[in-house]
Amino acid sequence: MSAAPKHNAEDYLRMYRQMVKIRTFEDNANQLYLDAKMPGLTHMYSGEEAVAVGICEALEVTDKITSTHRGHGHCVAKGAEFKQMFCELLGKEEGYCRGKGGSMHIADQSNGNLGANAIVGGSMGIATGSALRAKIQGANDVTVCFFGDGATAQGLMYEVMNMAALWKLPVIYACENNGYSEYTRTEEIAAGSIIARAEAFGIEAHQVDGQDVLAVNKLATDLVARARKGEGPFFVELMTYRYHGHHVGDINRAYYRSKEEETKWKETRDPITLFGDWLAGEGVATEEELSALRDAVKAEAKASVDYALTAPYPDGFEVDMHVYAETEDA
Amino acid sequence: MREITLSQAVNEAIAEEMRRDDTVFLIGEDVAEAGTPFKVLSGLVEEFGTTRVIDTPIAEPGFMGLAVGAAMTGARPIVDLMFGDFLFLVMDQLCNQAAKAHYMSGGKLSVPLVLRTNLGATRRSAAQHSQSLQALVAHIPGLKVAMPTSAYEAKGLMKTAIRDNNPVVIFEDKLMYQDKAPVPEEEYLIPFGKAKVLREGTDVTLIGTSSMRQVCEAASKMLEAEGISAEVIDPRTIVPLDEATLLASARKTSRVIVVDEGHQSYGVTAEIAARINEKAFYHLDAPVIRMGAMDVPVPFSPALEDLTVPTPEGVADNARKLMSGEMIHAA
Amino acid sequence: MPHEVKMPQLGMTQDSGVIVSWLKTAGDAVATGDVLFEVETDKATMEVEAPVQGFLSGVRAAEGDDVPVGDVIALIVESAAEVEAGAAPDPVPTVDEAPPDPEPTPQEPPAPDPAPPPSPSIAPQVAGGRVLASPKARRLALEQGLNLAALRAEGVAEPIHAADLARATTGAQSTLTAAVEGTAFKALLEHSGDQSDRTRVLAGFVRRAWEGQSGDPVAVLIRSLDGSETIDGRDDDRVALTLVDLCDSRLLGYAPAIGTTLTVAHGPSGFVLTLSFAEPALAFAAAAALLNDIAARIDDPIRQLI
Questions:
Q1: Distance of residue C107 Cα from the nearest chain B Cα, in angstroms
Q2: Which of C126, C131, C134 to mutate to test the interface with B (most CBs of B within 10 A)?
Q3: Is the pTM here over 0.90, yes or no?
Q4: Are the C-beta atoms of B42 and A104 separated by less than 8 Å?
Q5: d(Cα A241, Cα A244) in Å, to the nearest integer?
Q6: Least confident stretch, A9-23, A99-113, C190-204
Q7: Short-list A286, A272, A283, A190, CA closest to A237
Q8: Chains B and C physically touch (3 or more Cβ atom pairs below 8 Å)
C-alpha cells in the first residue's frame, strides 16, 4: 500500500468502513435480487470499492459527483444512508427518489450526488456542466465524473473534455477501468491508450492502481486541490476489477473471462483485504477491531434491508408527481 | 405602441432576464460576437461578457449536456441550437437526461434550462435545415414546448421560459425573425398553457401554431369575404396545452382545422385533433382536420418546397368543404 | 341475395331438429328478431328468430319434419315480388330454379357526366342501414326526438349535419291540443300590468311542468312571431321545447315538422294549447301528461307557486 502519512487513524478507519459498507450493501442487494425480492436489474460494484472511496474521501459534501449504472458504490462513498438506498432499490416510498429511480438512478443531491445514469457515458455532460456552473459562478466546488472503460467509446466524452480543457473547468474524469465493457474485454473496444485520449486535449492524465485506496486517495486529494485552484480538468484511469458479471443475472461468463482470473483478483487484489492488512500492519487497528467493524456494518445493513422490505410503496397518486418542477409565480 | 422584430424581441427578453438573474447564461455555437447566423443575440456579449455568453465548439450533444449539469446545480442556461434539425443530435441529453432528472430523482433534482431553436421550411435550406420537430419533444414528458407566433409572443414566452424550473424548448420560426409586431416597452410575461383567441368566429375554428397562425389568419380573411366566420386560436404552448380554450371553441363552431408545420403524421395536429375528438365529439359537425407539412423530407427546389407546407388557400379550401358538408376522409 | 334459413345446431349432440310449428308463412314480411319457427331438439323446444329482415319464401320443411342441422329450410328474400309460392318439393333449389338475384351484377358505375349531383332521394345507403350523420347531428336528433333514418328517407343527403335537421321535414309529428279558460292567469297578468310578461310566465310553466314530469331541468326556446329566438332557462340546461306564443295574433296553431313545439293561442273561450312532438322519442303518455300539466298551471297559476 502507498504510505499516506497525513491521515490520522480516524480517517483511515472511516475509509475502511466506507469500503466495507459498499461491499456489504452489494452483498445484500445481490441476495435481494437473487431472492426475487428486488425488481428490475442491478449492477454490482464489488471489487471496485477503493476507487469510489479513495476519491470521495478527497471531496467535500459541497463537491459534486455523477455516477453510473454501477453506482451503489459512488452513492455510499458520497455519504448516502443504507435505509433510503435499500428502500429505493425496492421501489419504496422512503427511497432517495421515492421509488421512481431505482438501482440505476439513485440521486442524493444533499451529498452532492447528481445521480446514477443508465445511459453509458450519459453523465459526462452533466458533470462538465456542473463544473462550468462552478466556474461561471465563482464557486470553488469540484465535480468528479465517474464512468467506466466502456464509456470511453462514447462521442460525448470527447466533446465535453474538449470544452473542459478549453475553459479549464474544475472537473475530474474518473475512468474506472474494470477490464470489461459489459460482456466484452476492454482491449476489444478501446484502441490505443485510454489516458492518451485525455492527453490529446492537453488534459493532465494519470493511471493509478484502483485496488489501493491510499494511492487513489492521495492522487485524488492532490487533483481536487489543484482543480479548486483552477488547474483542472484532470483525467484518471483507475485500474480495477468487477467481481460480479455485468449485471446480477450475468452468471455464466466463462465465454468472456475465466474463473481463475476472477479468483486471482479476489484472493490477491481485494481492496478491502489489502487495506485491512495495512491497517493491522501499521497498528491502526487490530484484526479483531476490523472484524467487529465489519459485523457492525452487516448488522446495520440487515436492519436496513428488513426495514426496506416492510416499508410502504408510494401511493398511486404519486405516479404523476415530479414530472414537472413547480415554478413559483414570476 | 412601438414595433420591433421578433429577433429584437427575443434579444430583449434574454437581456432583461440576464440583468434580472445572474444565474442565467447563454451557451451555443457562435452566440457571442457572431450573435448567431440570424443575428438574434447580437450585442449580448458586449453587455454580459464571455463568461455569460459562451461560444462553444460545434458539439451539440456536448454543450447540451453541459447545460443540463449547470442547470442541475443552480444555473439557468439558455442553450442556442442553431437549427431545429440539430435536435436529433441532442436527444439523449434533452430527453433521457434533462426531461427525466426531476422525476427519476423523486423531485430532488430539477433542470431549469431553455433550449431555443427554430423551425420552418420555405427558406430553401433543404431537408436538414428546414424541419419542424416540435412533435418530437412534445412527446416527452418532462419537457415544455413553446411556439411563439409573433414578436410579442416571442418576448413574453421567452421570459416565462427562462423563469420556469423545467427544461423548456422554444421554437422560433426562422422566417419570422424580421417580422415586426407591437411590443410594449413595459415588462410583461405570457403564462404557459393559456391559448390566445386571436379572432372570434362562429362557423369554424382554425388552430395555428408558430407561423401557421398567420396562415390561419389569412385564411380567415378569405373566408370572411365568403360569409364564413372563422375563429383563430394560437395555443402558444403545446406543452402544456390549453385544452379548455380549444374545446370551448370546438363546441361553439362544431368544425375544427388544426394547422402546424410539423409533418402531418403522428404530429401536433394529430394530438390536438384527437383530444377534440375525445372531449368534444358530440359537438362536432364534421371530422377535425389535420393540416401539417407533407410527409416528405423538405425538398430544396422552391417549386417543390412550396408544395409541402400548409397555405392560407389550402386552409380556406378545407374550411369550405367542412361548411358545405362535403364528406372528408370518410371511408 | 336471398338469405338461407338453416336448421340450427342448438345442442352439442344434436344432429337434427323437428319443426314444431311455423310462426310465419311464405310471403310474410319479417323483421330481424321475429320468431320464424319453433324447433324441438334433444334438449327442448326453442324459438328460432329471423337473422335478417325481408320476406319469408321457399319454405321447404313442414311442421313435424325432422331436418338435419345445416339443411336449408326456407329463404328470406328482400322484396315481396321475389317470394316463391308454397313449400317447394325439392329440398335444394337447382340452378335453374334459383330465385332471381335481386342484386345486379357488380359493374362499373356510369362514368360521371354533366348530370346534376345525385338527388337526395338516392342518398347513399350504407351497409346495415346506418345513417351517416355527424356526432353533433346525432346528439341534436336525440335531444329533439328526430329520427335520422326518417330524415334520410325523406331525401336529406348524407352525411347529415346539424343544419340539415332544421331544413328537414318529417311526417312523423303528432299533435295534442288542449283548451283552458285561464281566467286566473289573465287576472294575474292584468295584476302585473305587463302583457309582455306573458310569454316568460308561460315558459316558466312549461319548464316546471317538464321538470315535474321528467325530473330533469330544461330550458325553453321562445320563438317570437318575427322569427327571433331567446332561451328561457339556465345556460347549462338542454333546450327541450320551443314555445310559440300566438296570443297577440290571429293565429291558432303552428306545428313544425321537427322538434317539440308548444303553441299558446287565444281561443273562443280562453287559451288553446297545441303540442306537436315526435313519437316515440316523446311518448304519447308523457306528452299527454305534460300538456295536461301545463294546462292545469294556466288554469290555476297558484299551483305554480307550490
A1: 20
A2: C134
A3: no
A4: no
A5: 9
A6: C190-204
A7: A190
A8: yes
